[in-house]
Amino acid sequence: MTFDFHATYDELNPDDHDYRFYAQLAADRGVRTAVDLGCGTGTLAQILTAQGVDVIGVDPDPEMLRVARSKHTESASGGRVEWRLGYSDVLEAADADLAVMWGHVAQVFTDDDSWLSVLTDLHRALGRDRTLAFESRSPVARKWEESTRAATLRTVRTPDGDVEFWHETVTVDLPLVTYDTFTRNLRTQEQYAHRDVLAFRNESELRTSVEKCGFTVTSVFGDWDRSTTDQQTPELIVIAARN
Fold first, then answer.
1. Looking at residue 4, what is its pLDDT?
2. Per residue in 139-166, is it b (16+ CB within 10 Å) or e — as a string?
3. What's CA 77's distance to the chain center, in Å?
4. How many angstroms separate the Cα of 108 from the Cα of each of 24, 188, 195, 196, 226?
5. What does the pLDDT look like over 34-86, one tens digit per residue?
6. SS3 annotation, the chain
7. So what's the pLDDT on residue 77?
8. CB 109 within 8 A of CB 199
9. Which residues contact 23 (CB under 8 A, 6 or more apart)?
């Protein structure tokens, strides 16, 4: 039996600081419609619909959307979710109040052309003066140095036995960082590796790209407590208004 990474994603990523931050942002701004780009297993979408927000959840991975659909229930508060398979180009011109990329989705767009295309698509989906919000790991914190087996090892229980899961950094050529994700079944000793690349853009690069695509950056926080950025803060949490 193959390890079902998608079904265990929430267990492997239990931290909820990002969900709570974006849910509070939506509540503070009276958001009624939102785009959740890179919605994954749908956790944020479910929280937002419970607040009465209508959500378009977009993800290119059909297995992530499978999990999202399986755990999503209709909200008594009136919010509804529409799941869409694909990338930002499946978003038509709209008048959404909020567009969110959580889970460091912004970092998967490793070249400037694809990143600017995503920002342009989100600009088209938002109403004037509405909000774009996303986070990216700050390169000054050098979090890739923590991507070792010893630092990231997790074990999850599956129907086919306990499975180890960990990350290892392969190369660093900023802004790009290449890393491997490993899984090893402790019962069968089967081991698999998957290689990914993330972009670690700095604050200046993020501000420039966002503003180039028709937004005004209103805040950049260094962590989920809304602290300012410095040489130690792990995150770059960008809030921008659509021009």
1. 59
2. bbbebbeebeeeebeeebebeeeebbbb
3. 25
4. 25, 32, 12, 9, 24
5. 999 999 989 999 999 999 999 999 999 999 999 888 877 655 456 899 999 99
6. CCCCHHHHHHHHCCCCHHHHHHHHHHHHCCCCEEEEECCCCCHHHHHHHHCCCEEEEEECCHHHHHHHHHHCCCCCCCCCEEEEECCHHHCCCCCEEEEEECCCHHHHCCCHHHHHHHHHHHHHHEEEEEEEEEEEECHHHCHHHHCCHHHHCEEEEECCEEEEEEEEEEEEECCEEEEEEEEEECCCCCEEEEEEEEECCCHHHHHHHHHHCCEEEEEEECCCCCCCCCCCCCEEEEEEEEC
7. 54
8. yes
9. 44, 47, 48, 51
* pLDDT less than 50: residues of the chain: 1, 76
φ, ψ of residue 11 in degrees (nearest 5) = -70, -35
| Distance in angstroms (rounded) separating the CA atoms of residues 236 and 206 | 9
pLDDT at 5 (0 to 100) = 56
Side chain identity at residue 22, one-letter code: Y
Give the pTM. Answer: 0.91
Tell me the one-letter amino acid at 215.
F
pLDDT in the model for residue 79: 81
Write down the pLDDT at residue 1.
43
